[in-house]
Automatic annotation (TrEMBL):
Keywords on record: Cell membrane, G-protein coupled receptor, Glycoprotein, Membrane, Receptor, Transducer, Transmembrane, Transmembrane helix
Keyword ATP-binding: no
Main location class: membrane
UniProt cross-references to PANTHER family, sorted A to Z: G-PROTEIN COUPLED RECEPTOR
Family of the protein in this entry: Belongs to the G-protein coupled receptor 1 family.
The protein's name: Lysophosphatidic acid receptor 3
The UniProt record lists the keyword Cell membrane: yes
Length: 356
């Protein structure tokens, strides 16, 4: 039996691994279509709204600061999450059993990379906010070069984390170690993945608690002496509030999923993790939907830039339509005298002209 478990199964379809764990994850056809339609609408919103966040940061010079560059990078990770959710929705249910091992690694890798990128971005933003607030400045002194290096580092770590299972930390050669939620992922990997992410959550919460207590103490000291100038210092507090709301939404939406992954990795037989799988995915999708709404609601300048971008898109569409209308060939009877004449009458006119 041990020798059979050590045999590698790279050429098997995912149905083999689902049967190995005894997974009964069948979707009702109507339910699956409903999920795909509603999910597609959500994903379209995720893609468009996060693309607008990135465009807003690029086009508005008031956003050309480290905090907003990192915020745009967070939007880019949500954009990738939207692509990952689309790929997942149309490769789930019975279709997931027909996937090859490579295709399943791609499906899960996209999700893992987007989650790692979001988490890494939030951690970097937390550190940037900590530096700026401790110096009592609106924005930190990070140069564009350092911000670029941080963004590259975020994506390098995220891609590595997403590729770890395909690089060997899987159960393809050890079927007894396979998890239920991810049939070719080792339970030990799920423990590492979920535990490390939960630790990062705690670190970020600790950083923002430190920032909050510092700002509150600093404000209480300065308020009696500089009540007029303290109003001008409310911008860093506003940015902190924005990030704290984003972080809070991220923790609320992802913590249940990470806890369930941890329980699956610990081989909890009585936890019935498969029943929670769909609801946890819905929470993850909602998080990517919420982030652009938070940016625009908490930041008036961002909302104004959004409206300007939508006006530009609307004006550009109108111009394109008018250009196409003007470029159409003239075909009306008012433009050419013989447009509405039948072919026989045109021939008779030509013959009459030749005779004369």
């Amino acid at each position: 039996m041990a020798q059979q478990n050590q045999t590698c199964h790279y050429n098997e379809s995912m149905g083999f691994f689902y049967n190995n764990i005894g997974a009964d994850d069948k979707w009702d056809k109507t339910q699956l279509i409903l999920v795909q339609v509603v999910g597609s609408l959500f994903c379209c919103f995720i893609l468009v709204s996060n693309a607008m966040v990135i465009a807003a940061v690029i086009t508005n010079k008031r956003f050309h600061y480290p905090f907003y560059y990192l915020l745009a990078n967070l939007a880019a990770s949500d954009f990738l999450a939207g692509i990952a959710y689309v790929y997942l929705m149309f490769n789930t249910g019975e279709v997931s059993r027909q996937l090859t091992v490579k295709e399943y690694f791609i499906r899960q890798g996209l999700l893992d990379i987007s989650l790692s990128a979001s988490l890494s971005n939030l951690l970097v933003i937390a550190l940037e906010r900590y530096i700026s607030v401790m110096n009592w400045k609106v924005h930190s002194n990070l140069t564009k070069r350092r911000v670029t290096l941080l963004i590259v580092l975020v994506w390098a770590i995220s891609i590595l984390m997403g590729a770890v299972p395909s690089l060997g930390w899987n159960c393809i050669c050890n079927l007894s170690d396979c998890s239920q939620l991810a049939p070719i992922f080792s339970r030990s990997y799920l423990v590492f993945w979920s535990a490390s992410n939960l630790v990062v959550f705690l670190v970020m919460v600790a950083i923002y608690m430190r920032i909050y207590t510092y700002v509150k103490k600093k404000t209480s000291v300065l308020m009696p002496h500089t009540s007029g100038s303290i109003n001008r210092k409310r911008t860093p507090i506003k940015l902190i509030k924005t990030v704290m709301v984003v972080l809070g939404a991220f923790v609320i939406c992802w913590t249940p999923g990470l806890v369930v992954l941890l329980l699956d990795g610990l081989n909890c037989k009585s936890c019935n993790v498969m029943k929670l799988k769909r609801w946890l995915l819905l929470l993850a999708v909602l998080n990517s939907v919420m982030n652009p709404c938070i940016y625009s609601y908490k930041d008036e300048e961002m909302w104004t830039t959004f409206k300007n971008l939508m006006r530009c898109i609307g004006n550009g569409t109108r111009r394109q339509r008018s250009t196409k209308a003007n470029a159409r060939p003239l075909s009306s009877g008012h433009d050419t005298g013989t447009s509405h004449l039948p072919p026989e009458e045109i021939k008779n006119d030509d013959q009459h002209i030749l005779k004369t």
